[in-house]
Amino acid sequence: MDPTRCSDQPSVVIVGAGGHGRVVLDILLRAGTYRVDGFVDSNPNLHGRRMDGRTVLGDLSCLPRLRDEGLYGAVVAIGDNGVRREFADHVEEMELRLVNAIHPSAHLAHNVMLGKNIVIAAGALVCTHCQLGDSVILNTGCIVDHESKIGTAVHICPGAKLAGRVTVDSGAFIGIGATIIQNVRIGYEAVVGGGAVVIRDVSPMTTVVGVPARVIKDFASVEEFAEWLLPEYVRAEPSGVTADDSAPERSRLPSATS
Ligand SMILES: CC(C)(COP(=O)(O)OP(=O)(O)OC[C@H]1O[C@@H](n2cnc3c(N)ncnc32)[C@H](O)[C@@H]1OP(=O)(O)O)[C@@H](O)C(=O)NCCC(=O)NCCS
Q: How much distance in Å is there from the Cα of 250 to the middle of ligand 1?
């Protein structure tokens, strides 16, 4: 008998059977709060396959049946910020709870405010009076210092360091090992390159790299912005998306700050 099936813990699935999904499985196993019943992924080639001891059960369409069989909730483990947020919405539409996966070696101050569908990996530090929005990833060993506000579907990569009172707006990506000095605001869906040192605000949907960080990409034109809003992008996205967590791919639609 599968030992994971004889506990009274609430059962969850991990949405996304990619590398980040594996990390989240390990976090959930270490934390021990939930029983992990398997993965869900849009890629049909993965269905029925075993990954780190858990089966890929199907795509999102199997969630209502699993819910009816007693599934408690899910955590969305997809690296792409926009896709993660969108899949989290689908999970909630199916009346499943979005749960958090917090590694026991992460340290959170007593008054940190947490949303849902948050992943906090091993060794992350979150200091006093910080706020973390829904679907945030705080990856391995990152530091978020006092009174910082992290918006919905932000990804703070391994080893990144945010000083006090930093604001990161929704959908932003803070690359591996980046450093952000105090009181800086990172705009929505901005990308901070690996190893960058950010010493001033970054505009929305802008990519910065280097020390000190400089802009290498922003919205070149009104036409380019309009392209993001074309209806075919909206229709094309939900299907065929898999847990390819080769971040940072931006979501197609700009999202409001949170
Ligand atoms: C910033 C980043 C997103 C840019 O990717 P991109 O849009 O494909 O940019 P390119 O690779 O075309 O590079 C454009 C220019 O910026 C430079 N550049 C890119 N990333 C850089 C970085 N992190 N630091 C310094 N310079 C960088 C390139 O050398 C290139 O310079 P050039 O035009 O003089 O040749 C990417 O390089 C990066 O740093 N990603 C972080 C990945 C990460 O943190 N992964 C962890 C996942 S958990």
A: 14
Ligand 1, atom 27, lies closest to the CA of 209
Task: Give the C-alpha separation, 160 to 197, whole Å.
Answer: 10
Does the Cβ of 191 fall within 6 Å of ligand 1?
Answer: yes
pTM for the complete prediction?
A: 0.88
Domain ranges of the chain: 8-99, 100-237
CATH number of 100-237: 2.160.10.10
Distance CA 247, CA 81 (A): 8
Determine the number of helices (DSSP H) and then strands (DSSP E) in the chain: 5, 25
The tens place of each residue's pLDDT in the chain, 258 residues long, gives 344 444 689 999 999 999 999 999 999 999 999 999 999 999 999 999 999 999 999 999 999 999 999 999 999 999 999 999 999 999 999 999 999 999 999 999 999 999 999 999 999 999 999 999 999 999 999 999 999 999 999 999 999 999 999 999 999 999 999 999 999 999 999 999 999 999 999 999 999 999 999 999 987 556 666 666 665 554 444 433 344 444 444 433 333 333
CATH architecture type of domain 8-99: 3-Layer(aba) Sandwich (3.40)
**Residues 103, 121 contacting (CB under 8 angstroms):** yes
